[in-house]
Amino acid sequence: MTFSNPEDQKLLTLAKATAVRVSATQGAAVRDETGRTYAAASVELDSITLDALELALGMALSSGATAIEAAITFGSEPIARARLAIREISPSALLASVDQDGNISAY
């Protein structure tokens, strides 16, 4: 469960730690064009369900990010609309998901 770029490995560490800290099914971390990172965990309530990648991306964009260099989720796969949003903003961004067993899927 490693990435060749240490900055991408850092994103995985942040995503995993965020999910574990709040016992969420998914954690995500994104890095913007300036190197700033944003991490979030999925939210699952009776009244609302939010994907961790959507939350992390929303935090980045609402903080002024204009591009995403990389986005990594840990746990469950990101929903399709979150992946589409990353591709809309940054078609060449690294977009990957790591499951509980350490298997990496790239999108």
Features:
Cytidine Deaminase, domain 2; five-stranded mixed sheet; two-stranded antiparallel ribbon; 3 helices; globular; Cytidine_deaminase-like; catalytic activity
How does this model look, in words?
It is built from 3 helices and 7 strands, in the order H-E-E-E-E-H-E-H-E-E. The chain is of the alpha+beta class and 107 residues long. The chain has a single domain (6-106), classed as Cytidine Deaminase, domain 2. The strands form 2 sheets. The protein has a 5-stranded mixed beta sheet, with helices on both faces. The longest helix is centred in the N-terminal third of the chain and has 16 residues, at 6-21. It is globular. It starts with 5 loop residues before the first helix and ends with a strand. 42% of the residues are buried.
Summarize the structure.
With 107 residues, the protein is α+β, with helices and mostly antiparallel strands. Helices cover 35% and strands 30% of the residues.
